[in-house]
Amino acid sequence: MLMFSRASACGIAVSLLLASGLAQGACDALKPYAGGAAAASREQQIDQGRQAFESNCAVCHGMDASGGRGPNLRRAHIARAPNDAALCELIENGIPPEMPAGAFLTDVEVRALVAFVSSLGQSAAAAISGDPVRGARVFANSGCSSCHILAGQGNALGPELTDLGDRRSAGYVREVLLDPASRLPAEFLMVRVTTKAGEITEGVRINEDNYSVQLRDVAGNIRSFEKTELQSQEQLKGKTPMPSFKQLPSADIQDLIAYLLAPRATP
Amino acid sequence: MNRWIHKFAGACTLCVIGAGVQADVSFERILQADQQPQNWMTYSRDYAGQRFSPLSELNASNVKDLKVQWAYQMPDSTNETSPLVVDGIMYLTGPNSATALDARTGRPLWTWNRPMPADFHLLQFAGANRGAAVLGDTLFVTTLDCYLVALDIKSGSERWATKVIDYSLGYGMTGAPLAIDGKIIAGVAGGEAGIRGFLDAYDAKNGQRLWRFWTIPGPEDKAAFKTWGGDSAKSGGGPTWVTGAYDPALKLIYWGVGNPSPDWNGDARPGDNLYTDSFIALDSDSGKLRWYFQFTPHDTHDWDAGHVPVLVDAEVNGRTRHLIVNANRNGFYYVLDRVTGEFLKGQPYAKQTWAKGLDAKGRPIVLPNTEPSDKGTFLWPNANGATIWFSPSYDSTRRWIYVPVRNRAATYFKRSMEYRPGRYFPGGGENETPEADASGEVRAMDALTGDLRWSFPLLSPASSGVLSTSGGLVFTGTREGEFIALDATSGRSLWHMQTGSAISANPISYGIDGRQYVAICADRVLYVFGLK
Questions:
Q1: B302 is annotated as an active-site residue
Q2: Which residues of chain A have pLDDT under 50?
Q3: What is the pTM of this model?
Q4: Do B125 and A2 touch (CB under 8 A)?
Q5: Helix/strand/coil (H, E, C) string of A139-166?
Q6: Residue A161 to chain B, least CA–CA distance (Å)
Q7: Which stretches in chain B have pLDDT values below 50?
Q8: How many domains would you assign to chain A?
């Protein structure tokens, strides 16, 4: 019944939140993750977790965990839950006011959910066997920083890469490097606007509402247009300013991935 | 002084313009809501569910000058409340809370909170509250932990609190009650938890329950009970979470009934699953069922009928008909006779790929292979439907209905599930299509046919209700946070303001000292607009 757009989640009293974290137990054994001693294999546990996910979580996160009203969980690292213990506590306590606490879940279910959710970001992963030091040179020589900021250096035309390892798997990054248009994020969109004066601007959409659109143009400038100023606005679906790097030797690609995904502190 | 003040000042002995004196809100006052256009005394302003304001100070010429007059920050996020305004005082609700504000300045007058029980956990999708009811000198609110509470309207002090049902079974209460002649009608949420739904009436004076209508039948309701295979009715769902309408002449309450449980797996509940996904018409004195109309028999896509029924009187083929109309979550627009429940007309108003059409009795002609499946079944619309709980608006002078529309598809999955009390019981789920492939509209339609008059495109599926006014304006909010005013005749955009957060609430309009105001909740902030 009460389903609505992602935007329409609702508030709930603070007292409710305080009530939700009381039942501890499932997470105790997960500091660090210990698995179930007499329990199923990791694979079985992940499968149990998938079933528990579909029954309890998919309503908001989607059946494939790629997001709905709740966020996409198919990512290498979840910022709110950097390890299994934190993920377990997050499932038990919820995220007030939108995500309900898992007070109704059994300990076995919570642990299975932890196993399942933490497996999601690894499903497309490839082994990171490259040399990050060499990869840094590939990064510099390939001109990546002309469009991306990494560790405080570079330009902001494309997404920041500093925390890429928290967001993307090696397999995903490889696919993007070889064929950028094949793995555009759902929210990524290039647009071309033409003003009534005839000025044409192409850029990456930063934001849009029913009356205005904000772009980052190919020079990296932020541009804002009222739609009443425009004679046309085209969506350039499938287009990206990022070139393919498939001409690089595969060892360079591997090193570059290792560099991009290396853990690093944000500046 | 505005024209409507002149027009109604003579007829209105009770109304006091301004915030100085307040009179009790009798049933008769709500019945004659049109004589007090400055007030908004029930969820949809009138019993007919029309969400139309007779105020006309704001119009297509001056709405460009609309400005924020005041704002009020609420303690909880993403509020969905539809405020009430009576004699210059506004009443707002949140989850387990209510607040009275000076509607001229936004200054709080009193607040009330009910603590949540320590063992409460949220199973509803929304910890929201969508509004209050007022009758006499009392404000009536529902709570997430399933109490109906009566508050003294001048102080917020509790007069009584009645336990409606045990929340630990997965029930919740999020909707505005409906106050009629001495009775408070209230429904429940919980369609994803396998509840057994019902609609209740309580004595406004003391909170005693007068009747309960079970939306999921027991064996005594033989015909309806047969529409549930095995013992599936025990966890059949059928919540009543969106406020209904009332016809005082027929003494009938009209209410939407939500989805069957489990939502996406119909295998365990063969049959039509009455009275889920239906409008029900109940005798207001006895709570007995007069008629029902089921929009989506044996629903497996969560297209519940949690909608505000809109009551329309019109000449059809030379004869005055008392109608009830609905743009349904399943993508079809329906026109019914509200005396008998007879289906008169229906047609799709949004993209849908699950039914070939409606038969002569309004039953959908379902296409093959549209059930959720193990590997997924793709179709339009998604589980949020072509529209959802937020209100349409009906302008009787044009006989047009304005509907917030959602265009988004999904892949639906079915999963086996065992019912366990107080837990989610979805039996599957959906993967929505990417946002880039989704859109929204405000559609103006001929209320008697559903024929399109105009469409105002929205970047995202609609997230907010609609208000139309006698000044020829249509107000709504958007997912991107704009509050907008459209020309009611053409659908042209006349004014907009970025509120800073997605809007998921119903707008209202009210008046003080001859000035017209429009109010909307955007996340934590209630904005009030006017000309100044």
A1: yes
A2: 1-24, 31-37, 123-126, 266-267
A3: 0.86
A4: yes
A5: HHHCCHHHCCCECCECCCCCCCCCCHHH
A6: 24
A7: 1-20
A8: 3
